[in-house]
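name: query_chain
kind: protein
chains: 1
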Amino acid sequence: MKIGITGGAGFIGGYVAEVALERGHDVVIFDSSGRVAADSNPNTLYAKNVERRLGDVRDQTAVTELAAHVDGIIHLAACLGTQETIQNPRPAAETNIVGGLNFLEACTQYGIPGVYIGVGNWWMDNTYSISKTTVERFVRMFNENRGAKVNIVRLVNAYGPRQSVAPPFGPAKVRKITPSFVCRALTGNPIEVYGDGSQVSDMVYVRDGAEALVRSLEAAAEGVVFDRPVEVGSVRPVTVGQVAAYVRELVAHKFGTDQVPITFLPMRPGETPGTPVVADTSTLEFVGMDPADLVQLGPGLEATIDWYAQHWLPGYQARQA
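structure:
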């Protein structure tokens, strides 16, 4: 199958492309940035077998053209950010909702299967959650009334090597938990946690999420549309505070340094305090995945820390010098 991946230049997109290639598919990266997530990735399979298309999901013609040249689409492209999009919600609403509709219309027009990536905190009142979950409802409408074949996959909190880094350590526009914690620990800075650290948020090793996305498209291509979203998360939920403590312990142990302190910041706007964000991992049976086989937090964080220490830290230190 020739798979189009919107937002394929992003963090999750790079892993989806790799998994798709390893499962014998061809890949078309559709992205507005003109780059590919793994431009510097040594994965030769990726480098040799990825077609690139420059386009924006807000452009109906561009998305329709993508659908005309592939056998299925995994729709990842979105304007991200929880607190970052509250003061100016329109760009995220336009990209996420209009882009989602363009994806659905294009798949329906050409009769091809699709997968839509949802969010774990779908009920929260922030721009990102509202706009993403609005499209989930459109997916159900298109499946029931327009003959679409689109499955939904919710990744709760994806992490792993190659995730972009926000200021003051990198240029990313959105601050993510794991790169923020890891980069602070590697540079000897206090780890900053929003709230009191008691929030429960499932951590998903990115490659596990990518596999669920590709398998969900394969199922849709066989005409199998799930009656509810596939949810990918931890087998054992952890708190944000526990993740921070684990990161500082692993960094200190690996590099023989003192454990950095953990500091607490006011809760981010747009998040509901005290509400656990967890996945129903029993839904993984829809795609033939066993929750017990998912990468556990310890090995996942170790691999992530090793990547940042090898690939991110030297460049950061050189810039500071």
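note: The mean pLDDT is 91.
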